[in-house]
Write a structure and sequence with these properties.
Layout (H helix, E strand, L loop, with lengths): L5 H10 L1 H4 L15 H4 L1 H15 L5 E6 L21 E4 L7 H14 L2 E7 H13 L6 H13 L1 H4 L4 E6 L9 H23 L6 E5 L7 H6 L3 E3 L8 H11 L9 E6 L12 E2 L2 E2 H9 L6 E5 L13 H10 L5
Parallel strand pairs: 1-2, 1-10, 2-3, 3-4, 4-5, 5-6, 6-7, 7-10
Antiparallel strand pairs: 8-9
Helix pairs in contact: 1-13, 6-7, 7-9, 12-13
Length: 330
């Protein structure tokens, strides 16, 4: 199915909305139409009941990365408008959680059961430290890493979150010397262990992993993750590459039943016009249709905010991917 069949899948998604759990009314960009909660409150109450049942039926989950803002300049900035069937909304800026955003998160969680998360990224922290060094900082890496990790873990309790995503790619150590292996193991443990410590004090919450599992020596850490996203899948250009990435990470000791893949939704930036497509097809739709029967427990969709903009139906590509992954029962 390609991008030109967009309207067909959206019609199917709307027709099966009670079962597929995605019943936001179409909204033209820049306008507001009464949604189902305003037009038919009893039907909306029934919809929410079915949606919460859907959350508990063992379906394959959808994580979506959302570019939250400090203030609302338009409807695209509102958590309230994202598709209800998203299981975990990953907020890109946990450091700017305002009360208005927290209120919308609480309402989404209460009404629909949607969870929220944010990511703490080793590569991002390392890049920031290297930039600081170039600007004259003499802070040692270990000090910078530990301080930044502590600061970012603290975002959780003030942001109304349900999960944290640990982002760690690591590297291939097959040609490393003994000294390099020791340094690598110590650095990895220093980054990953605080997540396990955090999880032990947040028993009703949890963490997920995004990265390259074969580069993680601590298999206990991976076993404790709820979902293990294979970060390399973001660079895949077809399903064969997706399958290869899964295969090469499926070694002894890996929690393969927790593996999940990632792909991008189309973006507005003309410089990245090919992002979110495999040829003429939406990569998210092809991934979702394949993942429905593949040995993965979830898919991750990047760049959700850009998918908002459509003159007749907001978040059309995301909605289509959700419907393909978990089609409405007939």
């Amino acid at each position: 199915m390609n991008k030109y069949n967009l309207y067909g899948i959206l019609i199917m998604a709307a027709a099966g909305s009670l079962t597929s759990c995605d019943w936001d009314e179409p909204e033209a960009v820049g306008n507001h139409f009464g949604n189902i909660s305003e037009v038919n409150p009893p039907a909306y109450t029934e919809y929410l009941k079915n949606l919460r049942s859907y959350r508990e039926n063992g379906h394959k989950k959808v994580y979506a990365w959302f570019d939250n803002k400090e203030s609302f300049s338009s409807q695209v900035d509102h958590v309230a408008t994202v598709p209800d069937s998203i299981d975990v909304l990953v907020l890109n800026h946990p450091e700017i959680m305002t009360q208005a955003v927290l209120n919308e998160i609480d309402a989404k969680r209460s009404d629909t059961g949607m969870q929220t998360a944010y990511a703490i990224s080793y590569p991002a922290i390392r890049k920031e430290w290297e930039l600081a060094k170039e600007l004259g900082s003499d802070t040692p890496w270990a000090t910078y890493r530990d301080n930044e990790l502590k600061k970012q873990l603290a975002y959780f309790d003030g942001g109304g979150f349900d999960r944290i995503i640990c982002v760690y790619d690591g590297r291939d150590t097959s040609t490393s010397t003994e000294a390099e292996l020791k340094e690598y193991a110590e650095d990895q443990a220093a980054f990953l262990t605080p997540f396990k410590t955090w999880a032990a004090s947040h028993l009703d919450k949890g963490y997920d992993f995004q990265g390259v599992p074969v580069n993680v020596t601590d298999k206990e850490f991976l076993a404790g993750a709820g979902t293990v996203f294979l970060a390399e899948s973001l660079k895949a250009s077809n399903l064969s590459e997706m399958k290869f990435i899964i295969m090469r990470n499926s070694i002894s000791g890996m929690p393969v039943e927790k593996f999940a893949v990632m792909t991008s939704l189309p973006v507005l930036d003309p410089a990245n016009a090919d992002l979110g497509y495999w040829g003429a097809d939406y990569s998210s739709w092809l991934t979702a249709r394949w993942a429905r029967t593949a040995d993965v427990c979830a898919i991750g969709l990047m760049n959700l905010s850009d998918d908002y903009y459509h003159p007749e139906f907001i978040y059309p590509v995301c909605r289509g991917a959700i419907q393909m992954l978990n089609p409405a029962a007939k």
